[in-house]
Each structure stands twice: as C-alpha cells, then as structure tokens.
Amino acid sequence: MPVIWEVMQPGTRRSLAGVGLLAVVVAVALTLSPDAAIGAVDAAADDPATFLAVVAALYLVRPLALWPPTLVAVVVGYGLGIAAGVPVALAGAVLTSVPTYAAARWVGAGNDCAPVERLASVGGGYFGSAGDLRGVVAARLAPIPADAVSCAAGLSAVPLRAFALGVLVGELPWTVAAVVVGSSLSTITARGLGGVGLPLTVATTAAAAFLLAGPAYTHFTEEDTAVVN
C-alpha cells in the first residue's frame, strides 16, 4: 500500500484523502446525536471549569459532526450569558470553520480531479464576482450550511484573512441570536433558535441579497455586453 500511495499523482492522493475524510465526517455526523452530546451540559453548568471543558469538546466535535455553529452558541449563552457568551461563541464559530476550510484548500491545491476542478471553478466564479470578503460574509449570512461555505472558500483558495473576517461578520447576527436564546433557557436543548429562527433567516437572507446585488448586476451587465459585441 505505501508503494502504491507513493506512485500516485499528487492530485489523486489528495482526492483519496478527501474521500476518506468525508467518510469519517459522515460517520461521525450519523452516529453522534446533538441531543446526546448536549445532554451533559446541564450537569456541568454549575461548575465553570467543567462547563468550559464541555464547550471546548463540543467545538472540537462540531466540524466533524456537521453541527451548525449556532447549536454550540446556544450552549455558550446558556452557561456564560450574553456579555461573555457572544465573544466566546464568535471565536468558536471562526476557529472551528478553519479546519474545514484548510482541508478543502489542501484537497483542491493542484488537484486535476474533474469533480474537484468543477467545484473549485463554480466557487471561484462566485468569489471572483462577489469578492473574497463580501462573498464569505454573504454566504455566512444566508441560511447555507456553514461547513459547505467553508469548503467552497477553501476549494476556491480564498485567503485565510478574508475567510476568517468574513466568517466573523457573517456569523455575528446568528451568534448573537443564538447566545440570547441560550441565555434565556431554563433547561438546555438542541432545538436551535426557536421562534426567532424564521425572522432572522428572512433578515439575513435579505442582507446577503443586498450585499450581492452590486456584483450580480455587474456580472450580468458584462455578460450582456459581451453577447452584444
């Protein structure tokens, strides 16, 4: 096996590694229930050190289990309140998005596998039109799975600084809402944002559309000009 691995093209090795990582993520996501994981939070809430250890464990598992950052942000708000919870949850959202982004960027670097090239081309077209920072902010504002956005940014080779800042800004309204919801709970649950979910989704989707309106207009205007010429 080591000999076969060594003679493979770098792109093939990266593709196989990506498939293996995806299989691990799917297995973890299917076997690890948010309810079961969060069930331990109530018992730890009275002990700050234990609670922080539980939160750290949840954040470590989050990208592997494909949990949305808001799920852990609710837990953070439940234990830490709003003032301390918002910065902790924002930091967690950014830091736990980086591994997915980095893995996708590594898989996509110099990879000539057709599906990977196609995904990178689609993502590159989007970020090329919207801009790296604006594109990440809009995508994280919209109700799109967080790790899908991280993968797209990584495959499209969005710079790390723009990616991290985009996640920070785009996740801000979601994180604040989740922490506020968590701080108001008497018992922690894995039910998400509850009654504020729909209004927030509408508002963030509108904000994402507003951010992308200018680049979209420019893109389609250039296409029309090219067709006319």
UniProtKB/TrEMBL annotation:
A Pfam family this chain is assigned to: VTT_dom
Transmembrane segments: 49-65, 72-95, 162-181, 193-213
Keyword Transmembrane helix: yes
Superkingdom as given in the UniProt entry: Archaea
Gene Ontology CC terms, in alphabetical order: plasma membrane
PANTHER family documented for this protein: GOLGI APPARATUS MEMBRANE PROTEIN TVP38-RELATED (PTHR12677:SF59)
Protein's UniProt name: VTT domain-containing protein
Organism: Natronoarchaeum mannanilyticum
Lineage: Archaea, Methanobacteriati, Methanobacteriota, Stenosarchaea group, Halobacteria
